[in-house]
Structure formats: structure tokens, C-alpha cells
Amino acid sequence: MLVDKLPWCSHDGHPIFSVHPQPGSTRFATAGSDGKAKIWSLGCALDAKQEAQPGVHKLLATLTEHNGPVNVVRFSHNGRQLATGSDDHLACVFELRPGPGVGSLGSSTPNIENWRLKAALRGHGNNVVDVAWSPDDALLATASLDGTAAVWAIASGQRVARLDAHTNFVKGIAWDPVGSYLATQSDDKSVIVWRVEDWSQVARIVSPFSMMISSTFALRCSWSPDGQWLLAGNSFQGATHAAVLVPRERWTRPKDYLLISGHSGAVVCGAFNPRLFSTPSRASRASGKENGDANGEAADGSGEAAAGDGAAHGTKAGRGDDDPDADALAPVFAIGSQDRRATVWTAGADRPIFCASRFFDAQVLDLAWTSSGYGLLASSTDGTVAIFQFDCDELGAAAPPLAVDGALQTLYGRSGAGLGQRRRLVESVEQLELEEAAGKGPEGATASLAAALALRSAEEYRSWLLKYAGFLAEARDETRLHELCSDLLGPPGPASRGAPPTGAMDGVADPASSQGWEPRSLAARFRDALDDLQQLS
């Protein structure tokens, strides 16, 4: 593991309330009490050599449109837009435009990148403390201290829903990856799950939060990438502060909740990793290193997980459920607390994988994972940002994003913002063959890819993936093709030829500047990469 505080990532000593990396790219954003949102180079955070290069630009842009502290930053899933929320009662949406940056108000240094305000969303009567993008990036949900949540259409900038069932500050909001539900958490000691179709209440979850404290800045909740678990903070297990995992569709069955305890202060933020992980088998866990803190010492052992019948467990990959040594695909998540610590867990484990203690001088207020699944950013009210870089020995092997799409397709018959919402007209014989073999069009192709991966069938996986890449090239689905290429091949162009074929990369090129993947040359590159992949498996 590599751990680094980023001394150049600063809001001039002011508290940093939020941090978020741009999916599949080389930027991350921060929000500060100085009234600014800033965009930084993720490459400099991940790579000490790049950080040390003379003249390298670490700060890419400073956004000064808000008139109060900026409480939250969140990139859209496609990485093209950035949403912010502020004490000025506004949520703003920014987008990156061509051309050089211009100087920002109150700054003598011009911006390197040209981020411009796309929309200012007005309608809240108090601070906006959390925001969440819908899976297709068409909608933005906002949580406010006015006691309401709102949903906005990005294309028009209009509010399409006002959710006012809470009776106190709304401090957290999270969108289900399938796009069916929206969760809000409030100081009224409840989490409400809303049905997106008609904005009706599905459930009000109260029992884990009966002892919650109100002296929190935010309550950032999160969904697992397969949509099976909702993570919320400010809970208790006995007299110990805890987070709680609530299983999907079993919202009001306390015996099925999984409590994550061990912190000595309120848990105020939680973040699921965007990847699923092939967790080490029981035998390898017994012989391997389990826990460590940011100082290289063993974790203090105070963390515990306790549950009723609903304890979270991964799905066995290609072996019988009764095989104790079978690896499983499982979600990983991190939680941050007012006790100045952050812990990392695998769902279903009874102890944390990692505990960052004595690392921050104030509460950990936000956490966010990089696209590879191996990088974790943390921001604190002490005015600092840290990055933790894990490896396979600590988290397990990250399954490709297609495994998440396959899980969504298998569980719900669709894949959220995945292939199901990017369907194209039939344009080639290869696409017809792929859809006929898959049985359900591109969604079926995704499920078949995930199934082949789970069965450890390298040849079948290679065949399906090659067909799938050809289908995307013919359909000119540049966004999905970029995601797939980034996972397998790394950045486009000659510099990426030596890149490993199996994902786990953060510093991929920006979609707008990707010129190295032409449809005619794509198949050859994929065959080379997949030959390597088959040998590795």
C-alpha cells in the first residue's frame, strides 16, 4: 500500500468538505469552505514521478461562481460535468469546454482548463450539502438543510421533483445504480427510499438511527455497485458508533441489517468501491496480511461487523456454494468518521481490511474511490486530502466493469447507465450474430461476458469480448468503446502498448482527446491484449 498526503492540494488552509475523482480520467475535484471548487491532476496524486516533473500543472482550474462555502463536488458518470452544492443555496453544474482557461475571480493565476458554468439550479431555501447523479447523468438530485431533496433535469435546468417528507435537515442523498430508487438521509433519524418512477416513498428506515446525533456536517450515503446494499452512517451498535448496510427490498427488516461498528465518533460518510472484487479465499485470508493503519501498524481491532440473517456475502465465482475455499465477487466500501479515522471493509467481513488512524487532525468528511478500484481519496476538515493506493493482496482482484454490468443485468434485467441505455440500430452482420447468440441484444452480451468471467472460461471470455468490441466499433458507441479500451488496454496511442491488459488503471486518457482507437485497428489490438489475458488466466 502507498499512502500520501497531498501538500499541494489545498484551499489555503480552509477545511476541505468534499473530494471526488473524474471517472475514467486524470482529474479530481475538491470543495472548500473558502467558497471555491478546484480541479486537480489525479496523475500527480497517483504518480510521484509525474508530481515531481518540472512545470507540471497540479491545479487545473478554480471555480469561483458560488457565494458561500462549497460543500460537495461530484463528477457525472461520463466525466463530462461537475456538480457542486453550496451554502448559497445553489447547486451548480460545470462542463469542460474547448480552449484555454481564463482567470477566475479572486485569483491571479489563469485556469489551465476551460471549465464553464452550464447551469445554476435555484430552488432550495438553505445550504445544499450533498448531490447525486442519476445513472444516465440526465438528472441531478440535491439534499438541503431546508429539509427537502430536489431532482433536476440537467438539459433544461428545471426541477422535476421536490421530496419533502423529512422533518429536519436532509444531509445525504444517493442514487441506486439501477436507476429505480433514490435514498435520502436526514437529521429526523430516518433514511427514506424513494421510487424514481413516481417519486413515492418505498420505505422509511428508522430503527438503525434511533440514537443518531445531530452535530454532523453531512451524512453521505452510498449504494453498492450491484445495487444490493445501501450504506448509511450515524448509526449505533449498542453504545458504539456504526454504519449500517441495508439490503435491497428488505428495507424495514432490522434482522437483515449489517452493522459496521468500531469508530469512536459518528460515521459521517460512506463510499462503495465502483468495482466488485474477487476476494481472497478463506485459506489465503488465513495466511495473508489482514489489517494495517496509515502508520504501518496493525489495526486496533476495535472494528466489528454484526448482523442477523442478512449478513452481506459475495457471490461464489464458478464453484459450488459449499466450497469454503471458493473465491467470491464482493463489494468493498470505506467509511469516515468524526473520530478522524477512515476504515475499509469487504461486505460480509467481520473486521476491516484497513484502518487509517492518527492520519488526520480533524474529521474525515468525504471519501471517493478511483475508477480502478485501488485508489481511495479522503478529505478532512483539517484542510488536507490524502490518497491511499491499495493492491490486489489487500483488496483482491478487481473484476472488470463488465462484471458489474452483468450483475445488474442478471439481477434486474437491465444495467442502469450501461448498455441498456446505449442501444443502437443493427448496422452489421457481426452485430446480428452477437445479438442472436446473446439472445437479449447487447444486454445479453454483457451478461454472457460476466458469466464467462465468473466461470473462469478464458477462451469464452476472449471470444465474447472480441465480438463485443466489434459490435461497439460498428455501432460507433464511442463512450462505451473508450471505457472498454481503457480497462483492457490503457491509454490510447503508442505509449500504451506496454500497458497490462487487465484494467486496474487510473490514469487513462480523457475521452475527448482519445484518438488512438480506430475501428479497423481495434480488432488487432484486442486480439493481442486478449492473447495476453488468456495466458494470464
TrEMBL record:
InterPro entries, per the entry: Beta-prop_CAF1B_HIR1, HIR1-like, HIRA-like_C, WD40/YVTN_repeat-like_dom_sf, WD40_repeat_dom_sf, WD40_rpt
Cellular localisation: Nucleus
Domain CAF1B/HIR1 beta-propeller: 11-395
Gene Ontology cellular component annotations, sorted alphabetically: chromatin; HIR complex; nucleus
Keywords associated with the record: Chromatin regulator, Nucleus, Repeat, Transcription, Transcription regulation, WD repeat
GO molecular function ontology, one term from the record: nucleosome binding
GO biological process, one term: DNA-templated transcription
Bias kind Low complexity: ranges: 293-315, 495-504
Region ranges (Disordered): 281-323, 491-518
Record bears the keyword Transcription: yes
UniProt WD repeat ranges: 63-104, 121-162, 163-204
Pfam families: Beta-prop_CAF1B_HIR1, Hira
Keyword S-adenosyl-L-methionine among UniProt keywords: no
Ranges of residues in domain Protein HIRA-like C-terminal: 449-488
Main subcellular location of this protein, as a coarse class: nucleus
Family: Belongs to the WD repeat HIR1 family.
Name of the featured protein: Uncharacterized protein
Species assigned in the record: Auxenochlorella protothecoides
